[in-house]
Amino acid sequence: MTFRIGVIGAGTHGARYLRHALADVPGLTATALCRRDPEAGAKLAGELGLRFHRDPLALIADREVDGVVIATPPASHGHLAEAVLGAGKPLLLEKPLTATLQEAEHLEDLDARSATPLFLAQTLRWNPVIKTVKDMWPLLGKVHLIRLAQRLEPTTLAWQHDPHDPTGGSVLITGVHLIDTVRFLTGREFASVTAWTDQILNHAVEDAFLARAVLGDGCWVSLEVSKYTRSRACWLEAVGEDGQLMADYLKGGITLRQGPVEERSDIAAAVPTLPLVLGDWLRTVRDGAPPPVTVTDGVAVMQVVDACYRSARTGRAVDI
């Protein structure tokens, strides 16, 4: 039986979910969407042949919607996710888990009592370069230093320039990718963090973020987000006792150095991750298996996000 989904937040990213659901994931399709802009939402629904709902609660209650994707700004994640879990429908929630740590912990409590566990779409875990780095990680031996940098053009999304909405900053929107990737690759948790933020071109929220952290095993971590440059770059570097690795998870390619030997793997990065995410979500729904990224993972990331913001305000290291 085909699994029918509805997408709440059918803007640029939400529309990608809809199109992939309609064309690229066997056993899954899209039947409905909800968008804050009713004119744009109705137009997209007409183009794709879907039902349009002005009210997200109406989409959640729709009998032709078996599961829900939430791809809205993070300020709405908490109450919308609570509504989906309350309706007993499978939920795929785009990162970040919520806007605040308190909301994340509340959602974790609700999820623990739900028959359908929340599936968190930390989509960078499905990037082919990151997945290959995960497989190669044991070759490095004990890793003592990790660096991650994500550099992007200034955002054009209006809500990320809204001074009344503090949830569009680079720590919460982009930094969560880097934090989760460190946890994914190492299997370790963050122990402490010192962070700095700045507003370079965005006068509402931070568009520059730098953090120095220590993991539970003593590994040093450097995280950087720059969302003010007219170019893009996504870099990962890890230095271990047996080797070092450099990866470009935007353009593709991994370089592994062990002693005098250098090995280059031309792994492509430009692969759509959303069909992979949707396919894994469908399998967890049908098989009853735990999601690959859980609400508990999301809470752990939000603990680091919260610590970064507290550190940036005080100028001090914050234990996690």
Give a short synopsis of this structure.
The chain has helices spanning 12-23, 38-48, 56-61, 77-87, 101-112, 128-136, 170-186, 274-287, 295-314, and strands spanning 3-8, 28-34, 51-53, 67-70, 91-94, 119-121, 143-151, 190-198, 208-215, 220-226, 233-240, 244-248, 254-258, 261-265, 318-319. The chain is of the alpha/beta class.
Characterization of this structure:
With 320 residues, the chain is of the alpha/beta class. It has 2 domains: 3-122 and 274-278, Rossmann fold, CATH 3.40.50.720; 124-272 and 303-319, 2-Layer Sandwich (Dihydrodipicolinate Reductase, domain 2). Helices cover 35% and strands 27% of the residues. It is built from 9 helices and 15 strands. The protein has helices spanning 12-23, 38-48, 56-61, 77-87, 101-112, 128-136, 170-186, 274-287, 295-314, and strands at residues 3-8, 28-34, 51-53, 67-70, 91-94, 119-121, 143-151, 190-198, 208-215, 220-226, 233-240, 244-248, 254-258, 261-265, 318-319. A 9-stranded mixed β-sheet has the order 14-13-12-11-7-10-9-8-15. Strand 13 and strand 14 (261-265) form a beta hairpin. Helix 4 (77-87) runs parallel beside helix 5 (101-112), helix 5 packs antiparallel against helix 9 (295-314) and helix 7 (170-186) packs across helix 9. The longest helix is centred in the C-terminal third of the chain and has 20 residues, at 295-314. It is globular and about 60 Å long. It starts with a strand and ends with a strand. The mean pLDDT is 97.
